[in-house]
Amino acid sequence: MARAALRLGVRALALLVFVSVALLPLVSSDDGYRHCEGVVRGWADASSGRVKDGDKLSLKDLLFFLHIPRTGGRTYFHCFLKKLYTNAQECPRSYDKLRFDPSHPDCKLVVSHDDYSLTSKLPRERTSVVTILRNPVDRVFSTYEFSVEVAARFLVHPNLTSAKLMTTRVLTKSRAVSTLDIWPWKYLVPWMREDLFARRDARGVYKVHSSKKVNAYDVDDMVMPLHRYINDPVAHEIIHNGATFQITGLTNNSYFDGAHEVRHCVRKHPDLGRIVLEVAKNRLDQMLYVGLTEDHEESARLFAHMVGAQVLSQSGTLTLDLKEDLPIETDSHPSMEPEDEETNGHLHTWLAE
């Protein structure tokens, strides 16, 4: 099992190297370089705290599942965490904002799309962190597909104004948490929704369209093509290095006030991204568990041994049925993932009303 953990760890770091270096802009500039280097190195030095090697493998009082979007996190939550922790032990759902006192949590499990900076609000010495990584190319494809899927649900409305009004009315009435409240979808879905309505208006609302194109990622008159999506500044800001920035606490949803400046400096001077990468690798090394979407079965077994067994032990449960011989089903399409209950449930409600 230790060998399996090492193998997954090496692959996880390889994914971070790919997404942090290969997807950054290739051109650097001397303009403001020294200032930016100081900003990034200063942040890195402040983020370099380590835990004792023996401690990082021990489950602490509070478990923070840092859920990177489109990695299969819903499977882990429903198939593992929901079965390991009782409802009373689960912290109030905090995908949109914190709904409990993080300094004195009266719970044992936090699940959120928030980045690593959330740990600055938690009792760090009593908190363990787990996460799942995914091949960045597959993750980008999946993010694009999900953005289109959710945004397209609003096309039942005659126009964008009507869609926005209905959204506001339903959310005000139900007080529910929707996709539009949750990072990164609160940025990506409205962006795609506006684009879909603009393209529909351009071709005529009632015009029957029949495209001869077979490439679903390049149907320009219907939806924003993938190549335009991934090259847009919005995608550069949120998606390209999204996993790395989540692990380092530098997303545009960060609790760290200086996150924007660090991201700006890394974008302007790409070689500084290697400093961010080192922090990310250090963070992964300190986590209790890191899984890989591409190795669901092996990752799940490792999770059961490294996390599940400790949760059951602490709760007083003496037996753990790991069902070693039962394969875990994986999606045949590398860029598909079951929909997140937290992000999608209420959108179906909107369409039904």
From TrEMBL:
<dbReference type="InterPro" id="IPR027417">
    <property type="entry name" value="P-loop_NTPase"/>
</dbReference>
<feature type="signal peptide">
    <location>
        <begin position="1"/>
        <end position="29"/>
    </location>
</feature>
<protein>
    <submittedName>
        <fullName>Protein-tyrosine sulfotransferase</fullName>
    </submittedName>
</protein>
<keyword id="KW-0325">Glycoprotein</keyword>
<keyword id="KW-0808">Transferase</keyword>
<keyword id="KW-0812">Transmembrane</keyword>
<keyword id="KW-0732">Signal</keyword>
<feature type="region of interest" description="Disordered">
    <location>
        <begin position="328"/>
        <end position="353"/>
    </location>
</feature>
<dbReference type="GO" id="GO:0008146">
    <property type="term" value="F:sulfotransferase activity"/>
</dbReference>
<dbReference type="GO" id="GO:0016020">
    <property type="term" value="C:membrane"/>
</dbReference>
<dbReference type="InterPro" id="IPR010635">
    <property type="entry name" value="Heparan_SO4-6-sulfoTrfase"/>
</dbReference>
<keyword id="KW-1133">Transmembrane helix</keyword>
<keyword id="KW-0472">Membrane</keyword>
